[in-house]
Amino acid sequence: MEEEEPKSSSRSTQVLAVDVDKIGDFVFRQPDVTFLGDWFINLSEDSQDAINLCQAVKQLQTSGLPVAFPTETVYGLGADATRSDAVAGIYAAKQRPADNPLIVHISSLRQLHHLLDSTPGSRDDCPDADAQGRIPAIYDPLISRFWPGPLTILLPLPDPSPLAPAVTGSLSTFGVRMPSSRLALALIHLAGLPIAAPSANASTKPSPTTAAHVLHDLSGRIDLIIDGGSCSVGLESTVVDGLTRPPAILRPGGVSIEMIRQCPGWEHVVIGYSSGGSAETSAPRAPGMKYKHYSPNARVLLVHGRLSLDLVCRYPSARCKVGLISTMTWRVEDLKFPQYSVTRDHDALATPRMDGCLRKFAIKKLAPYLPHNAIKDSPLVDGESDQHAELLQVSSIDLGREIANIAQALFSALRELDLDGVDVIFVEAINESGGDAAAAIMNRLRKAAESEIES
Question: Which pTM does this prediction carry?
Answer without folding.
Answer: 0.84
